[in-house]
Amino acid sequence: MARCAVAILLTLPFAMLLALPPQPDISLEYAVKATYLYKLAPFVNWPPGTFTAADAPFDICVLGTDPFDDFLEKAVSGRKLGTHPFKVLRLDAVAPGDDCQIVFIHYPRAEQVRAAVQALDGRPVLTVTDAKDADSSGSIVQFVIRDGHVRFEIDNAAAARNHLAISSKLLELALEVKEANGS
Amino acid sequence: MTHPPRTHDSLFRKPAAIVASVVLLLLVGTFAMVYQFHAASAERLRQITSQADTLAASVTAAVSFDDRTAAREYVRALMLDPTLDAVAVYDESGHLMAGEQRPGSSPIDPVSGRAERRSMLVEVPARQGATVVGNVWVRASAVPWIMRLARVSGVVLLTIMAVVMLSLLGMAQRMLTRANADAHRRAEELTEANLRLIGEMEQRSRAEEALRQSQKMEAVGQLSGGIAHDFNNMLMIVKSALVLTEHRLGQSVSAVERFAEAARGRIAAGAQQDVSEPLQVLEEALALVAEGRARRQQIKRYLETANDGIDKAADLTRRLLAFARRQPLSAKSVRLDDLIGDIRSLLGHSVGPNVRLVYELGSHWHVFCDVNQMENAILNLVINARDAMPEGGQITISTADVHVDADERSGQAAVDQVRLRVADTGTGMSEEVRSRALDPFFTTKPVGKGTGLGLSTILGYVLQSNGRLSIDSEVDKGTIVDIVLPREMRDVSTEVA
């Protein structure tokens, strides 16, 4: 709880930026994570053919239970990656026809998360999970809370499997990077 | 000292050109300096912009994911460059992610920084791909004054050196021009002095010539005067002897005549008394007397011839004396026009039928001179003129009153003069002859025709009368002889013995 309080204190500028009314601690954490989701997009080298058209939307999908309330919509509102406007989609399950670029997987149980990640394995999708859900969820980006800050770990091998190249700048910022050779 | 205007021009024009060059040089130097200054500033701006770009590129993730520690590390790394004054990273919403500045410097404030737009403050967006995630600000430390100066010192030094060299050049040229003008002036002065010297030498040589001439004249005059005087005395002795001889001859003749008269009376008386014998003797005596009378007539003729010769000799000596100015003049006040009028008939007889005499008499003033000598002089001049015209021609005798204004330069006071001119249309004289015409015993006439004393006697007389005589002549054009006498200001009627 104290950790959360620090997080609130430090992320207060973001909360104010988003002009949010006072919310429970958990909401503020996900407000930050919501902004991080779309901010990850420029640091990933998306494979060619990701977008069908120049103005095709950049889909950010939330799989499972949605912890974001309307933070995510507010965060991406009016924002684009290049010519592609961000768009938020909520999915109940992974389907082959889904065209998501970033998928935030949030299930109450770790097995569900791992299953969802595995379902997306090999597709050009940046999978993001909360680290607390599982140590080895297999997702590419895992959010962790460190010193009251929302930080992340990156599984570069998973990214490679999904044909995504993560910017070294992002890797440098990650708390931990798992490389392909399993280190 | 007056310099030629050209020198003034060159003196004036060239420094102006040099001043213009100096001004131009200074302008160019200033321009180069400013340009270099600006170029250095632009270069510095480019440099810090690229540094900001580098930081912006590397700090994007830290900005995106709110990692202030990482952002601060990047900023610190950039701040290792000592020429940077301050570095700041702001996220896209304008919140400071990381900022560092040198001690004493103010932190970068994006609001006032944008307004301030200092030349050495740059702002670049931090982009990840096409997405702007924040802004990076970099401020360069102010370049020390001495460093800026050092940057432009090359141009400044070159300009100063060029200006100094040009100035030296200008000064040198100015001095050279001045020296040239000086030399030119000196050369002109020298030329002038040389001309003056030559003129003075000529004048001196003329004066010496005149002095020699006058000394010669003096010597000749004294000599001839002395000789003439003694010679005249001797002539007088001979003359008186002749006179006495004639007188005595007359006396003896009259005694013989008286005796012969008495003898004739006695013969007439004795014839009646028939003394034939003594009468015969008497007859013979009478015949002797008659013969003596005839002889006496003969002697008388000889004596007259001798007298003539003596008179002529005496005349010659008189001329000599006049030339030597030993003969006293019996001067009086006279109008030359009157004098010439008196001798017109004489002059007319003298020139003969071939020569026309023209009178242009226009003098009213009196002169003080010896009338006889003056007449003599005019007669002589006319005869000379006639002799110069063997083919005939015209002699013009003119007189005029001349007023000569005062000449301050030679100190000559104003003077009234009467000029007598005898001009002919004859053969004239060469310059050589003219220069010797006044010498005594110089004559162009055949031996026995001229004494060579005519003109020199006239000169002597004219000088004695305080006058001047000049001859102007040209071969085949004629001769003009001028006699100028001072005006006689005293009472016209006064005569001086």
Task: Please describe what this structure looks like.
With 183 residues, chain A is an alpha/beta fold. Chain A has one domain (2-47, 54-178): Response regulator (Rossmann fold), CATH 3.40.50.2300. Chain A contains seven helices and ten strands. An eight-stranded mixed sheet of chain A has the order 3-4-2-5-6-7-8-10, with helices on both faces. In chain A, a hairpin with a 2-residue loop joins β3 (80-81) and β4. By secondary structure, chain B is an alpha+beta fold. Chain B has helices spanning 5-64, 68-79, 110-116, 145-273, 276-323, 336-342, 344-351, 371-387, 431-436, 454-464; strands spanning 84-91, 96-101, 121-128, 131-140, 331-335, 355-362, 366-370, 393-404, 415-424, 468-474, 478-486. Chain B is rod-shaped and about 220 Å long. Mean pLDDT of chain B is 82; it is low at 1-12. The A-B interface holds A 11, 13-14, 17, 32, 36, 39, 41-43, 81-82, 149-152, 167, 169-170, 172-173 and B 58, 60-62, 64-67, 70, 93, 95, 128-131, 133.
What is the end-to-end distance of chain B? 62 Å
Got a strand count of chain B?
11
When the domains of chain A are counted, the total is 1
Fraction in beta strands of chain A: 25-35%
- Gross morphology of chain A: globular
